[in-house]
């Protein structure tokens, strides 16, 4: 239970020194299938003495030889030195490796990816978020072994857009998860992507995320036949902390055949309209995140209408709804809430974010009281509500007390 919650390191290393029985229990390979190593020998980025570097390598070698025989999932966090060495040792000695995560690491060269290609035939998932690496090594690996990769994460950088180009050229035909992100404080992070080419190259994609990255849509030339879209897509996230130019047509081009979609995250996409959402082919959407969180544009838009088309379409399936800072009219919010308060819908919705909207007390009274499963309600910055109620409510008891006050 401890290993499942906190991982085997450092717990198993410590209890293994208690006695022989604890040592026997902690050395069981089944407990070492998922391992995460942070840089605990010194502060990240600090130059290491040769003695410390040797100690790191010796410790890693001992773990590989004595504990990692069934290793499936391996992660390195904040490693600035010996990253190549760690990847090579693990890949050469752990034939069952399926997932590799390198977070905030530097110094990764093609040498490590050559080792993965030769020694890790079951590797399916690569996470390179916020790490610095020589992109040529990743491209060569994907060209030769991309057919076995089903999940890939990376952070947008000066040369990393070549990874996305390689994926759209068909290097990873069985890809099921693709995430491209950037730091929250990054500005104007744009990335050209040909959705049509990506749909043709990755027909099995189930999760597609572009976090704080503004996609610039490119079109394919000399293509007469229409693609099949993303028929298996279950999650689409194009969230940003800045202004997004995504339009209804852009969204339709991505989702025109995604009937299985369950999660749709459009935070920051202010050009998307209720009619554009209502036209989507997915009928069982469970999570819709449509809040606007960039402060420079809040309050400058004119009142919106049509939210009821969204809640009417998915009122039977929505579990989470976020429309923070969306300037729908009071009347429109009243109608939209009424659809969420219907018999079957009221038992489904669990989270409702109305922060910064024009929601009124009458709309809340008629709707919230009927929502039996609701355990999160955000009413902060709602200027049409009286003082004392404009806050976040967590848990059904907290929401019930709020309703008692309204009565």
UniProtKB/TrEMBL annotation:
<dbReference type="InterPro" id="IPR001810">
    <property type="entry name" value="F-box_dom"/>
</dbReference>
<dbReference type="InterPro" id="IPR032675">
    <property type="entry name" value="LRR_dom_sf"/>
</dbReference>
<dbReference type="InterPro" id="IPR036047">
    <property type="entry name" value="F-box-like_dom_sf"/>
</dbReference>
<feature type="domain" description="F-box">
    <location>
        <begin position="12"/>
        <end position="37"/>
    </location>
</feature>
<dbReference type="InterPro" id="IPR001611">
    <property type="entry name" value="Leu-rich_rpt"/>
</dbReference>
<keyword id="KW-0833">Ubl conjugation pathway</keyword>
<dbReference type="Pfam" id="PF12937">
    <property type="entry name" value="F-box-like"/>
</dbReference>
<protein>
    <recommendedName>
        <fullName>F-box domain-containing protein</fullName>
    </recommendedName>
</protein>
<keyword id="KW-0433">Leucine-rich repeat</keyword>
<dbReference type="InterPro" id="IPR006553">
    <property type="entry name" value="Leu-rich_rpt_Cys-con_subtyp"/>
</dbReference>
<dbReference type="Pfam" id="PF13516">
    <property type="entry name" value="LRR_6"/>
</dbReference>
<dbReference type="GO" id="GO:0019005">
    <property type="term" value="C:SCF ubiquitin ligase complex"/>
</dbReference>
<dbReference type="GO" id="GO:0031146">
    <property type="term" value="P:SCF-dependent proteasomal ubiquitin-dependent protein catabolic process"/>
</dbReference>
């Amino acid at each position: 239970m401890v290993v499942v919650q906190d991982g085997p390191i450092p717990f198993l290393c410590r209890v293994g020194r208690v006695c022989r029985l604890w040592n026997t229990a902690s050395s069981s390979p089944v407990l070492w299938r998922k391992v995460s190593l942070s840089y605990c020998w010194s502060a990240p980025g600090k130059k290491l003495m040769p003695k410390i570097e040797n100690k790191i390598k010796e410790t890693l070698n001992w773990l590989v030889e004595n504990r990692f025989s069934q290793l499936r999932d391996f992660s390195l966090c904040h490693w600035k030195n010996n990253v190549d060495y760690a990847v090579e040792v693990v890949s050469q000695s752990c034939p069952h490796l399926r997932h590799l995560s390198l977070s905030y690491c530097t110094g990764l060269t093609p040498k490590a990816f050559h080792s993965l290609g030769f020694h890790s035939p079951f590797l399916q998932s690569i996470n390179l978020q916020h790490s610095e690496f020589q992109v040529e090594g990743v491209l060569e690996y994907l060209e030769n072994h991309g057919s076995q990769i089903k999940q890939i994460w990376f952070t947008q950088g000066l040369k990393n857009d070549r990874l996305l180009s390689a994926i759209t050229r068909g290097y990873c035909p069985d890809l099921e998860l693709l995430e491209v992100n950037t730091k929250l404080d990054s500005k104007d992070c744009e990335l050209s992507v040909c959705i049509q080419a990506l749909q043709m190259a990755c027909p099995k994609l189930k999760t597609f995320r572009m976090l704080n990255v503004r996609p610039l849509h490119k079109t394919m030339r000399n293509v007469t036949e229409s693609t099949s879209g993303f028929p298996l897509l279950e999650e689409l996230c194009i969230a940003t902390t800045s202004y997004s130019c995504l339009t209804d047509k852009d969204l339709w081009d991505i989702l025109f055949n995604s009937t299985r979609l369950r999660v749709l995250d459009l935070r920051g996409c202010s050009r998307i309209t209720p009619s554009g959402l209502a036209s989507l082919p997915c009928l069982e959407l469970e999570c819709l995140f449509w809040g606007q969180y960039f402060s420079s544009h809040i309050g400058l838009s004119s009142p919106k209408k049509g939210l009821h088309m969204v809640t009417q379409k998915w009122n039977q399936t929505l579990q989470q709804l976020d429309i923070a800072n969306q300037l729908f009219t009071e009347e429109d919010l009243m109608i939209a809430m009424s659809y969420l308060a219907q018999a079957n819908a009221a038992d489904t919705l669990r989270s409702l974010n109305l922060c910064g909207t024009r929601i009124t007390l009458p709309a809340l009274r008629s709707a919230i009281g009927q929502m039996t499963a609701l355990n999160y309600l955000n009413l902060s910055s709602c200027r049409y509500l009286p003082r004392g109620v404009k806050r976040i409510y967590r848990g059904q008891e907290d929401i019930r007390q709020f309703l008692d006050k309204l009565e």
